[in-house]
Design goal:
Helix content is 54%, strand content 13%. With 201 residues, the chain is of the alpha/beta class. The protein is globular.
Length: 201
């Protein structure tokens, strides 16, 4: 079984690539953002640590963490962000490690994926077997974000500027899927890559 990280800039099309992989291969796919929500749910270690850090004031009436309230606290005190990340990131990695161990025990999973825009920044290249970069030309990404999400040029510019450059993504990744053109072309690249694997590794 191969543990593979999927990353890439906003608008590169990571979601569509993972949909295809999920339909055609024996795999499990996890999105780091979704896990980040799970590890903050009531009863989890992450939940208790965040409440201890920021107080009961971040809780909604139903006991869940009130995300806007928590975000406002972090915005007001930027030093909190590092402390929150020190709670969330290890919790996400532990959750993934537990799911990975379960998948290995089941024995019928060939590929185990985790996706996030910040995998490289979070040190996942030292955890996964391979890191895949979903690439798309910048003009294509800008068009997609404008058409599919309704983002303004200013918002698109701000998001792209905040992420790693193409050169940085390529430097840290083992395999690049060029998702600039048709999805079928991207699917062909995936098939060629995965057909070369020996599943007994």
């Amino acid at each position: 079984m191969r543990f593979i990280g999927i990353t890439g800039g906003v608008g590169a099309g990571k979601t569509e690539i993972l949909k295809y992989i999920g339909r055609h291969y024996k795999c499990e796919i996890y999105l780091a953002d979704e896990i980040g929500h799970k590890v903050k749910e009531p009863g989890t270690e992450g939940y208790h640590a965040l409440v201890a850090l920021m107080g009961d004031g971040i809780l909604a009436p139903d006991g869940q963490i009130d995300k806007p309230v928590m975000a406002a606290k972090i915005f007001a005190d930027p030093t909190l962000l590092e402390q929150v990340n020190a709670i969330i990131h290890p919790a996400v990695k532990k959750y993934l490690a537990d799911r990975l161990a379960e998948a290995k025990n089941k024995g019928d999973v060939e590929l185990f994926f985790v996706e996030a825009a910040l995998l490289i920044e979070s040190g996942y290249e030292h955890i996964v077997d391979e890191m895949w970069y979903i690439y798309a030309r910048e003009d294509v990404r800008r068009r997609r974000l404008s058409e599919s999400r309704g983002y303004t040029p200013e918002k698109i510019e701000k998001i792209i500027a905040s992420q790693l450059s193409e050169e940085e993504f390529r430097q840290h990744c083992d395999f690049v899927i060029d998702n600039s053109d048709s999805l079928e072309d991207s699917y062909r690249q995936i098939r060629q890559k995965l057909e070369a694997y020996s599943w007994k590794e």
